Amino acid sequence: MNNSPFNHTHFIGYVNQVTPQFVKVHFPSSVLMKPFSFYGEQLRGGLVGNYVVVEGDQFGFLGKILELSLPEKERFQLSEKSFNTKEFHPTGKIEILLSFELFNPMKIDKGLNSLPMIGAKVFICSSNFIKNYFKGFGLKGVNKSVAPTIEFGCLTYDKTTIVELSQQALFGRHCAIVGTTGGGKSYTVSKLIEGVTYNNSKTIVIDSTGEYINFDDEDFSEKSAKLSIDSFFHYTNLAISDLFVLLRPSGQVQAPKLMEAIKSLKILRVLKNNIDDDFIEKVDENTFSIKISEQVRENITIRDNTILKAGQLMRPYNRVYNKFINEIESIKSDFDIKSLSLQIVKECVYDVDFNNKDKWGGRNDNHLNNCVSLILRINNLINNSKFDSLFGFNKEKNENGELINIINDFINNDKSLLRINFEFVGFDFQSREILSNAIGKYLLEEARVSRFKKNPLILFIDEAHQFLNKKVKDEYFEATELNSVDSIAKECRKYGLFLCIATQMPRDIPNGTLSQIGTFISHRLINHYDKEAIVNACSSANRETLSFLPVLGAGEAILMGIDFPMPVMLKVNMPTIKPNSETPLFTIKTLKKN
């Protein structure tokens, strides 16, 4: 490529006005604006949307033509034939996008520390010059030769200019794909999944509706996990906070009793798993003996696979808790949930016995009455076949189809794509939101221990408005936030876990999440609040470019972000592997006559 973008054969005009927002250009002749061919490249002259370069004293400038007009006195001479037979002197408005060093054009400056001068020459920008800019966005010099790229599309106004983007620029600061129905959002997601998997990058897709099923047949794809059909998320892998969201205990009595019941069942598991002569000894099926001192042992009594509390000594219980506190206080729900409702009944006792302060008191009927609705919710949840197939209440943790095991196997093998299918997951009890939040929380924990630093992982979340910014309310209208994805957006870039969300309604995405998104691919947006959400979240976006959002065609998008010094309007290439997202067609049906 010729290092200089300023070719006299590409000259079209002179700068005649400079403002901080744009410059105006004077075209000496309308002939200069007409399309022409140069060494096999078709150059379209001065048209709205075209890229141009402006030659300065020390810097060059890349700009985009926003407006064209004729002087007032020449407008009346314009006719169908006159533009081709007479010379006119149009003027145009150019938005300056970035500046570059005059003798090293590929070294760009993201900020506009200088502007062109009056009289600076304006040239048509060749496709070779600008497409090399796209390829280098987001990369440092030493990485440009080895960084994976994705041939994403072409310029909207110049189909010959290929837009090839580095994967680092797209996902290195998280990515959001937004747009109304029919704008091409699903095809863009497919194109990106196709690109990163062809580059052998680890990718997990949370597929809300099953529309990316066509990826299952590819060699790079792991067998998809169809939740509630052939896979499940075992409840013991839920965090305690997720379990609280699922069960929605009130904060007055139910939440403390639920917490104590979970604690007791975790202690029971410790008792069963740590039987030895030194500290814990199993006396019989209903009794465990705890060593208090060399001479003293005290018992913990078991009834119906629960720990008895009423009238029992607290000291042996507390001794076990203190010795195994890390295991018992872990965030995992590692206990027998089938005994949970009965254990809550056992927890409904007075704090102390009035005759012996070392013991729990008798049954507290007021607390028990307050916990009835919670006990009913637990029993209904455990005995519901849909939730059993989703959370494995009656399955072992290591059975085939357990989702955490599937994720771990995928991370360790040589496959590039794992699709987690939510198509068959119901909307009852906010199970979709809780499940996606639990998956995000697991990946967040793995990222924090640097599991993805050497082999980064991209997490795609389709229809993200269904999962993010969700608050679950209990029967007393107290809300609990599901925010693991928000935490991924805020802290996981440095750990090698990258987020890519796709949504029709960016206004429903939390501001904290949107503010951490570095790359936006915005298809057609009509709603005012959706457009404002993008304007507020994307610092590099400007009002002039975003004014095109309501009129973008299918597959057209505006690409903008921190690693992109300028917004780019492009047409996304059709993916080889298409999503299953076509709208069903109405047909005329004739009634059969008797």
TrEMBL record:
* Keyword line: ATP-binding, DNA-binding, Helicase, Hydrolase, Isomerase, Nucleotide-binding
> Which chain regions cross the lipid bilayer?
none
What name appears for this protein in its UniProt entry?
AAA+ ATPase domain-containing protein
Q: Is this entry keyworded Transcription?
A: no
Gene Ontology MF, one: DNA binding
List the InterPro entries.
HerA-like (IPR008571), HerA_C (IPR033186), HerA_central (IPR002789), P-loop_NTPase (IPR027417)
Could you tell me which residue ranges the Helicase HerA-like C-terminal domain spans? 453-563
Q: What are the residue boundaries of the Helicase HerA central domain, all occurrences included?
A: 150-326
